[in-house]
């Protein structure tokens, strides 16, 4: 049967790749679009699905309809269309789906949270569950999420209510808002309507071995996997913060020794706590130091991975350009020849890096605006170009940069879009796990919206454009010491701080 | 702090210090932590390690089993030796103590296994 996983914007290609290699080897049945990857699998492979690293959440797909069938319908007809389709018997009485629902119910009864071994969430007192377990009926709730022009025609709450009534009649299920066996997630957008059942209550992206979350799990995994670690390697994160990237590296790779460095004592305390909690203390060493003057030998580490400051949540004293110049210079010094570095950089810094590609004749503009398919193509182009380059410079190092912007889609679409989305979120407040998945609207990110609207490489206060130009040239000259490997654009969302 | 980390550390970031290597260890509290023995890891790591610095550091931490003066290619098959190297590199944990710059005498504190290598502005 069909399944789908949600993935952060820009990370779909990684999720697609992972699913293709781990679960569904048929290239025709795996597809991705708009933050989702669809694939074919079965209940017997559910453990593999739950082990996926690059996805946010995994769902069993009940229904998927393309918008061509409904986009011109008016309000009443649209509601009718969705209702009829979702409450069709065929979709729900499917044998495999029944199997999965049974699986979810059994696991829920066992109170196994997250499908793996997570049991710490006790939930409400057991008294409330007893009748639920006793009568053998499946309990459910419906969460709707409507967006876009089509979404505005329908009220999420009304739709959820109507579908809920229909399903309880059709399937003899009973409604339970607080702690249902299964959740029915309906998403209506301008491109599709999908109905899915999440396979876990806690998103797969929320790693159970991380106590204090920083960067989202899938992003840390992607950064780690881009390091392409084959042999025994030392991995350095010069600004490790809570060390979430290194936790992912140490937890999932056998042959690594990780070194995390940070200036901040408090962050290091959290990192140490994280390391203990994840039980990777033997593979992860922390020290306090300045990433622009690392107390490490020249060419002493094999890999560098880092989420560099964006100047938003984490800022630097001098400008980002000046900071990155001295930072990169130091990385160049400590990284081994043929070592590999993967950086997560802000749009501002990435924009500067792009300037250095111009000599390759690649039209870099497509990185910014076009669809992922094109990014892929250009990525290969950059790859091949940089290989030619490497022939001329034998002492080259490799760099991968991941470009990311936490507020990209918001800043482009403007404020109306944002308000609209926030309203939807309020409608959604019942589906609390849903909000956990999509969280661009925490106080943290929404306040950065404004700052990102000011554009790229903006002049700093009190500095002439000539000074800025010089700073950029300096950064570029340092950057050009590295061999550029590839480029990915991802939209960054941070975990909820609860 | 593990001695593997110590092997990478230098104090040459201090103004006027040329090599700053190896840093001396003044151990306060040293623990032995059991770590799974991975001979391949040790074999691959050996060429990247500054042997004399490890030898000295192990001695300073009171590691009595001793390490030979040199390790050649032919000794890589010696499991007993690899185990000792493994112990020295990964199992010795300096929880509290100090690192001392061999040239300037500047001390870097180690608290909870985390060395603090931050410098004051006038030292850079």
UniProtKB/TrEMBL annotation, chain A:
The processes (GO biological process) annotated in the record are: tRNA methylation
Domain Ribosomal RNA large subunit methyltransferase K/L-like methyltransferase per the UniProt entry, residue ranges: 223-349
Q: Which CDD domains does the record match to this protein?
A: AdoMet_MTases, THUMP_AdoMetMT
A cellular component term (GO) from this record?
tRNA methyltransferase complex
Q: Which SUPFAM superfamilies match?
A: S-adenosyl-L-methionine-dependent methyltransferases, THUMP domain-like
Residue spans crossing the bilayer:
none
Q: Name one GO molecular function term.
A: tRNA (guanine) methyltransferase activity
**Entry-linked InterPro entries:** RlmKL-like_Mtase, SAM-dependent_MTases_sf
The record's listing under Pfam families reads: UPF0020
Q: What name appears for this protein in its UniProt entry?
A: Ribosomal RNA large subunit methyltransferase K/L-like methyltransferase domain-containing protein
The record lists the organism as Magallana gigas (Pacific oyster)
UniProtKB/TrEMBL annotation, chain B:
- Organism name: Magallana gigas (Pacific oyster)
State the Gene Ontology BP annotations. rRNA (guanine-N7)-methylation; tRNA methylation
Q: Which GO terms describe its molecular function?
A: protein heterodimerization activity
What the record says about family reads: Belongs to the TRM112 family.
What's the protein here called? Multifunctional methyltransferase subunit TRM112-like protein
* Stretches of the chain forming a coiled coil according to its record: none
């Amino acid at each position: 049967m069909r399944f789908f996983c949600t993935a952060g914007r820009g990370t779909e290609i990684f999720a697609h790749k992972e699913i293709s290699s781990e679960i569904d080897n048929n290239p025709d049945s795996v597809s991705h679009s708009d933050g989702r990857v669809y694939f074919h699998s079965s209940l017997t492979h559910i453990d593999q699905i739950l082990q996926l690293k690059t996805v946010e959440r995994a769902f069993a797909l009940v229904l998927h309809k393309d918008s061509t069938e409904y986009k011109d319908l008016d309000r009443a007809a649209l509601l009718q269309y969705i209702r009829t389709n979702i409450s069709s018997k065929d979709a729900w009485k499917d044998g495999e789906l029944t199997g999965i629902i049974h699986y979810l119910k059994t696991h829920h009864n066992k109170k196994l949270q997250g499908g793996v071994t997570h049991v710490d969430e006790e939930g409400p007192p057991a008294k409330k569950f007893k009748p639920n377990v006793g009568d053998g009926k499946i309990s459910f709730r419906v969460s709707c999420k409507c967006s876009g022009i089509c979404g505005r025609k329908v009220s999420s709450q009304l739709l959820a209510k109507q579908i809920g009534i229909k399903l309880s009649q059709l399937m003899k299920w009973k409604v339970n808002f607080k702690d249902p066996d299964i959740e029915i997630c309906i998403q209506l957008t301008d491109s599709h309507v999908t109905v899915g059942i999440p396979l876990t209550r806690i998103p797969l992206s929320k790693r159970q071995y991380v106590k204090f979350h920083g960067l989202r799990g899938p992003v840390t995994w992607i950064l780690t996997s881009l390091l392409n670690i084959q042999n025994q390697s030392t991995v350095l994160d010069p600004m490790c913060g809570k060390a979430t990237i290194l936790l992912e590296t140490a937890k999932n790779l056998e042959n690594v020794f990780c070194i995390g460095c940070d200036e901040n004592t408090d962050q290091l305390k959290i990192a140490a706590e994280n390391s203990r909690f994840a039980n990777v203390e033997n593979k992860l060493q922390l020290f306090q130091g300045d990433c622009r003057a690392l107390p490490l030998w020249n060419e002493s580490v094999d890999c560098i991975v880092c989420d560099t400051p964006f100047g938003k949540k984490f800022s630097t004293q001098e400008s980002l350009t000046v900071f990155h110049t001295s930072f990169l210079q130091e990385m160049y010094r400590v990284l081994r020849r043929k070592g590999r570095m993967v950086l997560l950089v802000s749009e501002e810094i990435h924009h500067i890096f792009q300037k250095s590609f111009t000599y390759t004749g690649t039209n870099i503009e497509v990185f910014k605006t076009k669809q992922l398919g094109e990014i892929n193509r250009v990525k290969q182009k950059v790859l091949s170009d940089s290989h030619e380059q490497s022939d001329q410079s034998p002492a080259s190092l490799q760099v991968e940069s991941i470009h990311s912007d936490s507020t990209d889609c918001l800043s482009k679409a403007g404020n109306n879009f944002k308000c609209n989305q926030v309203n939807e979120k309020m409608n959604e407040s019942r589906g609390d796990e849903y909000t956990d998945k999509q969280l661009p609207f925490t106080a943290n990110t929404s306040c950065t919206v404004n700052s990102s609207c000011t554009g790229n490489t903006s002049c700093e206060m009190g500095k002439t454009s000539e000074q800025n130009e010089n700073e950029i040239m300096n950064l570029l000259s340092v950057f050009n010491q590295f061999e550029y490997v590839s480029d990915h654009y991802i939209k960054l969302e941070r975990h909820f701080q609860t | 702090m593990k001695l593997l980390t110590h092997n990478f550390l230098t104090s040459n970031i201090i103004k006027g210090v040329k090599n700053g290597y190896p840093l001396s260890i003044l151990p306060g509290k040293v623990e032995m932590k059991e770590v799974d023995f991975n001979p391949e890891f040790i074999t691959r790591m050996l060429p990247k390690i500054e042997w004399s610095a490890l030898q000295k550091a192990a001695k300073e931490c009171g590691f009595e089993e001793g390490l030979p003066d040199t390790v050649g290619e032919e000794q890589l098959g010696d499991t007993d030796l690899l185990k000792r190297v493994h112990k020295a590199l990964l199992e010795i944990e300096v929880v509290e103590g100090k690192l001392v710059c061999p040239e300037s005498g500047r001390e870097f504190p180690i608290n909870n296994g985390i060395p603090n290598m931050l410098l004051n502005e006038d030292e850079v």
